[in-house]
Amino acid sequence: MHTTILVTGATGTVGREVVKQLSMLDGDIRVRAGVHSLIKGENLKRLPDVEIVEIDFEEPESLHAAFTHADKVCMIVPFADDQVQMAKTLIDEAKKAGVKHIVSLSAMGADAEHGILMGRMHREVEEYIKQSGISYTFLRPSSFMQNYIDYSAESIKKEGRFYMPTGDGKVSYVDARDIAAVGVEALTSAGHEGKAYEITGPEALSNYEVAQLLSEVTGKQIEFEDVPEPAAKKAMAEEGMPEWMADALLELYKVYKAGHAAKLTSTVQEVTGRKPHTMRQFLEDHKDCFM
User: Fold this and answer.
1) I want to staple 35 with a disulfide (CB 3.0 to 4.6 A). Which of 17, 41, 116, 132 is the partner?
2) Chain mean position to CA 221
3) Where are the alpha helices (DSSP H) in 219-257?
4) Which residues constitute the signal peptide according to the record (predicted)?
5) Are residues 282 and 147 part of one domain?
6) Are residues 150 and 215 in the same domain?
7) Among the listed residues 75, 38, 76, 84, the one whose alpha carbon sits nearest the alpha carbon of residue 59
8) Do 149 and 251 belong together in one domain?
9) Where are the beta strands (DSSP E) in the chain?
10) Any residues with CB less than 8 A from the CB of 46 and at least 6 apart, and which?
């Protein structure tokens, strides 16, 4: 008997990796990739035995189709002002469809009752999943290494520097491939029910140290510039970022700067049986993005 696993947010940083890793497994697993746009999901069609389905929150029929016969769900929702409501809609649909297990992408600090906005949003979603009665596993990663590609690669390529208001605060950056690997284990093997996994890389680094690693990997001088918060917020506004989102990111950067994001865990090793990627390994693997 096959197992159908639905991955929502399948074109995102972690979702794409979950779909990829699930598609490479032996066994009777059917992978269903839930995407906001079928055009964005085109690249996923290259993966073996992956079914692409569109999820439109304004179209209940699309949700029903995506969840039909789904046994398990890897739930990933985008960072947005209606993130919590989107998650609750998916959870309600999962319950109606008889989904047996939800693996939900949360965030480090979601268990802090009076944490930052991002943490509070994830905490509310976690509580809703618990109340649903569906078996669950929460993935609580630290900051993604891939954020350097998404948010800093352009200035690194053009200027040889990148900017953040983080001072010399250290962060236990984690590779999205490792987050996905933990998620895949939770989706495909027993013993992860009711668990909340804090997922980090093997080291905590400041942006000054990341800049040094970038310099060594690319062979060109890369510098990190610690910018004042007002300057950072102004730059975010000029890029068209909503004010609430800019404030939420600045709140997160304060946590980094204060050194509260340096916690290390052995989750990747314990759950997957292998060590997590180091920052150097990540940069080597994605060197072309910064050249």
Assistant:
1) 41
2) 29
3) 229-238, 243-257
4) none
5) yes
6) yes
7) 38
8) yes
9) 3-7, 29-35, 50-54, 72-75, 101-105, 135-141, 161-164, 195-199, 223-226
10) none
